[in-house]
Write a structure and sequence with these properties.
Layout: H1 2-17, H2 29-37, H3 39-48, H4 58-63, H5 65-81, H6 85-90, H7 93-122, H8 126-141, H9 146-153, H10 159-187, H11 194-223, H12 228-249, H13 253-267, H14 271-294, H15 305-331, H16 349-361, H17 365-393, H18 398-402
Helix pairs in contact: 1-14, 2-9, 3-14, 5-12, 5-13, 5-14, 7-8, 7-10, 7-15, 8-10, 8-16, 8-17, 9-10, 10-11, 10-16, 11-12, 11-13, 12-13, 12-14, 14-16, 15-17, 16-17
Length: about 400
């Protein structure tokens, strides 16, 4: 009963924290940043979890797994709905080149630097260690653009520069999901031989295929729907289908959801915009609830966490700065500022979804190590991003901005 009451309170707070009025930068840039990032919900989840207050113990966390599956399904479908072919074709090639330069630089540095420590310390086969390194590379590649968005709203950043940074961050998310698929392929088995890789590739392919079928089904059902209430019911059923199929077959909910949304973009016609408008209303509350539910799963049982964590944060920061500089050169007239990487240090909620997905699908001690590192890094990188955005991009300290 106590856990249920706590969950309802957090659900209500997530709705309040999704208000656009609270995320207007104005003079309270720091408050808007904390609300926009959602890291307060992650910290609150850790506090009520087994490590601190133990209000949500291991048994309660286990019962909330269906909610995690539904949240991941919503997140995946929303990412897939952003893959509108018309919009993707309209973007110039320099946009993709800049985003690829930024993401690949960060991914390569993080995965390459942490492969040997993970292999030697965890004792897993090399292919599995490569999958673990790829997962940390995926988490590192993902960026949150909320600093640039708040900077534009608060008049601290030019609109063109803020829009360019936001576009790169959105494409970073797509690269991170592709890297997650690679990590799942490499980490599917425990032996780490060619058969395990083939099995992982088959499972990812099956998830993508089922997602496409779910997208076709949703497009068919949505075509004859006129009222908004009926559309909400159809969407809720589709999300449950995606989450249930992924959970039953032990497939990637994010991959299934992304391909579902992408397929809907291609065949959905005029109903796509209506579907996106409905789902976008619950996008932020769902992300905040996922962050809260991820908090109690933090274990910190392996001392290796404290060795990997500072290396991950440091190498990721170097990758973001170097990748941002390279993206600015490649982007040309895109409008990226010279220190664009300094505005992309924040991990955001999708990085937590990625590592949470991996933990649920690949339940081994090394997976919990990656989960703990990623969750702690999300909080540390948010604090680091608050300083790097102002000092690196605005050439001012947070205190000068508030003044």
């Amino acid at each position: 009963m106590q856990a249920l009451l706590l969950f309802l309170i957090v659900a209500a707070l997530s709705m309040v924290a999704s208000s656009r009025a609270l995320m207007q930068a104005g003079r309270f840039f720091g408050l808007a940043q904390l609300i926009a990032s959602g890291m307060l919900f992650l910290v609150f989840g850790v506090l009520v979890g087994p490590l601190v207050l133990n209000i949500l113990g291991p048994a309660e966390v286990e019962t909330m797994r269906p909610l995690l599956a539904i949240g991941l399904a919503v997140a995946g479908v929303l990412v897939g709905l952003n893959l509108d072919p018309r919009l993707l074709r309209a973007l110039p090639w320099r946009v993709y080149a800049a985003a690829a330069a930024h993401s690949l630089t960060t991914f390569t540095l993080v995965a390459g630097a942490l492969f040997f420590p993970l292999w030697l310390a965890s004792g897993v086969p090399p292919i599995v260690a490569a999958g673990a390194a790829a997962l940390l590379g995926a988490v590192a590649s993902i960026s949150s653009p909320h600093f640039s968005i708040l900077g534009v709203r608060g008049g601290l950043l030019e609109r063109r520069a803020g829009l360019a940074i936001t576009v790169v961050a959105v494409l970073d998310d797509l690269f991170g999901l592709l890297a997650l698929a690679v990590a799942l392929v490499l980490g599917a088995g425990g032996v780490g031989d060619v058969g395990d890789v083939a099995r992982g590739l088959g499972l990812v392919g099956l998830a993508a295929g089922l997602g496409g079928l779910c997208g076709l089904l949703l497009a068919f059902l949505a075509r004859g729907v006129e009222g908004e209430e009926e559309l909400i019911a159809v969407l809720f059923g589709a999300v449950l289908l995606v989450a249930g199929a992924a959970a039953y077959l032990r497939l990637s909910t994010l991959v299934l959801g992304v391909t579902c949304g992408a397929t809907l973009c291609v065949v959905g016609g005029f109903s796509v915009q209506r579907i996106y408008q409905v789902l976008s209303r619950v996008e932020r509350p769902v992300y905040l609830l996922l962050l809260f539910l991820a908090g109690p799963m933090l274990a910190l049982k392996q001392p290796l966490v404290w060795a990997i964590l500072p290396a991950f944060v440091a190498v990721r920061f170097v990758g973001k700065v170097a990748g941002g500089a390279l993206a600015q050169r490649v982007g040309g007239e895109l409008g990226l500022p010279k220190r664009a990487g300094w505005a992309l240090v924040s991990q955001g909620g999708l990085s937590v979804c990625v590592v949470l997905e991996y933990l649920l699908l690949v339940p081994r001690p090394s997976s919990h190590l990656l989960f703990d590192v990623s969750l702690l890094a999300a909080v540390l990188n948010e604090a680091l991003a608050a300083h790097s955005f102002h000092v690196g991009l605005l050439q001012r300290s947070p205190q000068e901005v508030r003044a």
